[in-house]
Amino acid sequence: MSNFQTILIAVFLAFFVIGVLIFSGVIKLGGSSNGKNGLQGQIVVWGTLPNSSFSEILLEINGVNKGLNSSYIKKNAATYQQDLIEAFANGNGPDLFVITPDMIKKNNNFIYKIPYTSYPEKTFKTNFIDGADIYLDKEGIVGLPLVVDPIVMYYNKDILSNEGMVNPPVTWDELFTLNQTLTKKENTGTINQSMIALGGYKNINNAKDILATLLIQNKNQIIERGVELDFVSVLDSNPEILKISPIYAVLQFFMEFSNPSKMAYSWNSSLPNSLDMFTGGKLALYLGRASELFNIELINPNLSFDITQVPQIKDSTAKRTFGDIYAIVINKKSQNATSAFGVANLLSSGDYANDLSIATSLPPVSRTLLSNKPKDSYLFTFFNSAIFSRSWLDPNKTESNLIFKELVENILSNTLSMDQSITKAQSQFEGLVKK
């Protein structure tokens, strides 16, 4: 599909949805349009992405819509959700706000869902990657996807080349063989150089995202939507009736890397944080988000590293990685819903979506934009990883992190057996989705 065709479709959808909103009474008619696309009035956008990502783009949109005054306010990620709740309670919430999947449940009552009669589900799926389907429910489209932050694998080129390795591993099972070469230990067992940070939690950056990646690769979505739009924990499910459930298989694999009696032993709780190990040149493979690139370069400008896709299950027919998919949603009580939708639609498609991707250095969610691969090697990997990124319906990112942490540490400390740990985590998630 050409960019021109994409723009035509975006414009058509904008007017179609606006027409339905007017007809349904959500948007009140009145006043005259003095903007190029009929967008006017004040639109306030909230989010946690950098100010520079949105502000310049919104100025461009304002420039071609003379009656429009859209602006972006960057919020502190630590207080963002509470800021939203207080703003909605006081009736002064933003017209548009950017969310990630872990915010869907908490903000469900504040979001205007675009009906499929206005924006067909098929059109959404044609426009965006499969992972963006997380923003679809039976009532309509929760949000319009913007960019995705996938888990990728950073690797130390010097460590690999010193051992005669030409390429980084592409499947998880390769790690068992490579560990004998890439992990360096003293006679006492002290690890001086590690192959990869797996098997622990407190000193592993992105531990929850890594476990999510492994679970998603094993066809476990952790949380799913129920029949009545409720959330249901499927952590311990085994729908294909395998010999061992996906969560058991994932934990069995994951924990081998912190077991001194296993050939995969490469990590323990006494080691520094995995990011510090990698930037210090003592970790061969680091599983991290695409958004960490600049921080890694800042911490150690002299580090010789490259980036590749996260390892996959051997002989798997479908690649998967975890990715945080950002979307822009409409405040159900926005006083300017017409222009709010118009701005959201522009930000999620065509040139503006491309500009946002460039500004954030994150890959877009648009299939059309992802088909135009960048020349930069890092971005090339990010774009390819975005295509098969998946997220999950995290009901509360803080509490779910504690559940996963306890799950791993109960097994590590032998406090509970693996089966008991899984049962407890499942029960905790069942309680969490009901809150």
Polypeptide structure, described:
This protein is α/β, with parallel strands linked by helices. The protein has 2 domains: 3-149 and 324-390, Periplasmic binding protein-like II (D-Maltodextrin-Binding Protein, domain 2, 3-Layer(aba) Sandwich), CATH 3.40.190; 150-322 and 392-433, D-Maltodextrin-Binding Protein, domain 2, CATH 3.40.190.10. It has 16 helices and 15 strands. Helix 2 links the parallel strand 1 (41-47) and strand 2. The chain is globular. It starts with a helix and ends with a helix.
SSE blueprint and pairings:
Layout: H1 3-24, E1 41-47, H2 51-63, E2 68-74, H3 80-90, E3 96-99, E4 111-112, H4 121-127, E5 136-137, E6 140-141, E7 144-156, H5 157-162, H6 174-182, E8 184-185, E9 191-196, H7 207-217, E10 223-225, E11 231-233, H8 246-255, H9 274-279, E12 283-289, H10 293-299, E13 305-308, E14 321-331, H11 337-347, H12 350-360, H13 367-370, H14 377-387, E15 389-390, H15 397-412, H16 418-433
Parallel strand pairs: 1-2, 1-3, 9-12, 14-15
Antiparallel strand pairs: 3-14, 4-14, 5-6, 7-12, 7-13, 7-14, 8-9, 10-11
Helix pairs in contact: 1-11, 2-12, 15-16
Annotated CATH architecture of the largest domain:
3-Layer(aba) Sandwich
The gyration radius over C-alpha positions equals 23 Å
Low-confidence stretches: 2-12, 18-35
Q: Number of helix segments? A: 16
Keywords summarizing the entry:
435 residues, alpha/beta, D-Maltodextrin-Binding Protein, domain 2, 2 domains, 11-stranded mixed beta sheet, two-stranded antiparallel sheet, 16 helices
